Amino acid sequence: MSENIVVVTGATRGIGRATATAFARKGYRVIVTGRRAEAVDAVVRELRAEGLAVEGELLDVCSVDSARCLAESIGERHGHLDVLVNNAGILPEATVSGSVNFAHPGAFTETLMTNTFGPANVIEALLPLVRKARSGRIVNISTEMGSLTEQRNPESQYYSMVVPGYQASKAALNSLTVGLAKLLADTPVRVTSVCPGFVATELAPAAADAPTTADDAARIVLEAAESPDPCTDGAFIGASGPIPW
Ligand SMILES: NC(=O)c1ccc[n+]([C@@H]2O[C@H](COP(=O)([O-])OP(=O)(O)OC[C@H]3O[C@@H](n4cnc5c(N)ncnc54)[C@H](OP(=O)(O)O)[C@@H]3O)[C@@H](O)[C@H]2O)c1
Predict the structure, then answer these.
(1) Cβ distance 93 to 165 under 8 Å?
(2) Does ligand 1 have an atom closer than 6 angstroms to the CB of 60?
(3) What are the distances in angstroms from CA 153 to CA 94, 148, 158, 182, 202?
(4) Per residue of the chain (245 residues), what is the pLDDT tens digit?
(5) Cβ(213)–Cβ(221) under 8 Å?
(6) Residue 178: which domain range?
(7) CA 2 to ligand 1 centroid distance, Å
(8) Cβ pair 193, 116 in contact under 8 A
(9) What is the pLDDT of residue 46?
(10) In angstroms, what is the span from residue 91 Cα to ligand 1's centroid?
C-alpha cells in the first residue's frame, strides 16, 4: 500500500476536475473518472503532462455494471482505495431564467438517480476496497441548499433558490452520509458530506457568476478528506465548519 489512491467521480470538469488535480498535486495517485472517454482522456493527458500520477477510467455513476467494472479494475491494479470522492452531480431544474418547472417530466427522477443513487451505487461497489485502506475516506459532495434547516431559514442566502429535486437529492445524500458513518463506526473508514460553497462551474446558469473558483472548492474537499478530526465523521461541513442538516 505504498501509494494513496483516490477516485473522483465526474472528474471531467468543474469541481471534480479541480479536485482530481488538487489530490494529484498533493502526491496521491488519482483515478479520474467520467462517462465520456474523450473527456476523461483529455484530463488524464493534461495532468500527466504536469508529471502527476493519474489514471483514467470510464464511470457512469448511474450504472451498476459500470461501478462494478471500476471496482474490479482498481482491485486488480491497486487492491485498495484510500479516498472516494462522490462528486458527479446534476441540476437539470435550473434554467437560464432561473425559474423552476417542477412538472418537467423526468427531472426529479434523473436528479435523484445521479445525485443520490449514483453515490450509493459507487459506494456499494467500491466500499470493499475502501475498507482495505489503512484509513479509508468517503467524501460526498453535497450543498448547503440540501440542508433542511437552511431551506426553511429566511436569513439563508439560498432561501429563494427553490430546486426541489436537487435539494431532495442532496438531503438524501446527507442522510446516506450519516447512516454509512454509523454502519462503519467500528472501522477506520470515515464518511463526510462536504459543501464546496457556491462555485463557478457549468452546473447551472447561475453558477457562472458564483464567487468561489473550482480550485478553491477543491481545497475545501481535499482538506475535509485529509482532516484528522474525528468530528468530521458522519458530519456535514463547509468552508467555515459544520453546516446544519
Ligand atoms: N457549482 C456549485 O456551486 C456547487 C455547489 C455545491 C455543490 N456542488 C456539487 O458539486 C458537484 C460537481 O458539480 P460542478 O459544479 O462541478 O458541476 P459540473 O461542472 O456540471 O460538473 C459535473 C460533473 O459531473 C459529471 N456527471 C454528471 N452525470 C454523471 C454520471 N451519470 N456519471 C458520471 N459523471 C457524471 C459531469 O460529466 P459529463 O460531462 O459527462 O456530464 C461533470 O464532469 C455536484 O455534485 C454538485 O451538486 C456544486
Answers:
(1) yes
(2) yes
(3) 21, 9, 9, 28, 27
(4) 579 999 999 999 999 999 999 999 999 999 999 999 999 999 999 999 999 999 999 999 999 999 999 999 999 999 999 999 999 999 988 865 545 556 566 888 999 999 999 999 999 999 999 999 999 999 999 999 999 999 999 999 889 888 899 999 999 999 999 999 999 999 999 999 999 999 999 998 888 889 999 999 999 999 999 999 988 999 999 999 999 99
(5) no
(6) 5-242
(7) 30
(8) no
(9) 98
(10) 8
Report how many domains make up the chain. 1
Q: Show the beta-strand stretches assigned E in 21-162.
A: 29-34, 54-58, 83-86, 137-141
Q: Is the CB of 89 under 6 A from ligand 1?
A: yes
Query: Which helix (DSSP H) or strand (DSSP E) does residue 218 occupy?
Result: helix 214-226
Q: Please work out whether the CB of residue 215 comes within 6 Å of at least one atom of ligand 1.
A: no
Question: 89 C-alpha to center of ligand 1: Å?
Answer: 4
> What is the 137 CA–ligand 1 centroid distance (Å)?
20
Closest C-alpha to 196, from 10, 40, 15: 15
Any atom of ligand 1 within 6 Å of the Cβ of 165: no
- Report the CATH number at residue 87: 3.40.50.720
Count CB neighbours of 85 within 10 A.
31
Distance, in Å, from the CA atom of 118 to the CA atom of 70, rounded to the nearest integer, reads: 14
- String of DSSP letters for 123-156: HHHHHHHHTTSTT-EEEEE--GGG-HHHHT-TTS
Q: Which of 167, 149, 178 is nearest to 243 (CA)?
A: 149
